[in-house]
Amino acid sequence: MNCFLCGSNKNIEVHHIDCNHSNNEPHNRVDLCRSCHVAIHKHYGRLDIIEIRKLKKLGTIKYLR
Sign of the C-alpha dihedral, residues 34, 39, 40, 42? Predict the structure, then answer.
C-alpha cells in the first residue's frame, strides 16, 4: 500500500474524502502517508477526490506546503 500523493509506503493512513469516518465506501477512501494526510487537513481542510487527483498529477505533496 502506497500513499496516493507521494508514493511513500511508510505510515499509511486512510483519508476519508468527505471527512465522514463512517462513510467507508471505496470511492470515499484514499491511502495517504502520515505527512500527506496531515498536510491535507492542515493546509486545505477538506479536499475532494478531484482536487486530490489534480495534486497527484503534480507528482508530489510539496505543492501543498
Answer: positive
Task: Quote the pTM value.
Answer: 0.69
Q: What are the extents of the domains in the chain?
A: 12-64
Condensed to tens digits (0 to 9), the pLDDT of residues 19-52 reads 789 999 887 888 999 988 888 877 665 566 667 6
Cβ proximity of 16 and 40 under 8 Å = no
The CB density around residue 3, as the number of other CB atoms within 10 Å, is: 23
10 contacts: CB under 8 Å, gap ≥ 6: 33, 34
Nearest-Å Rg of the Cα atoms of the chain is 11
User: At 41, which amino acid appears?
Assistant: H
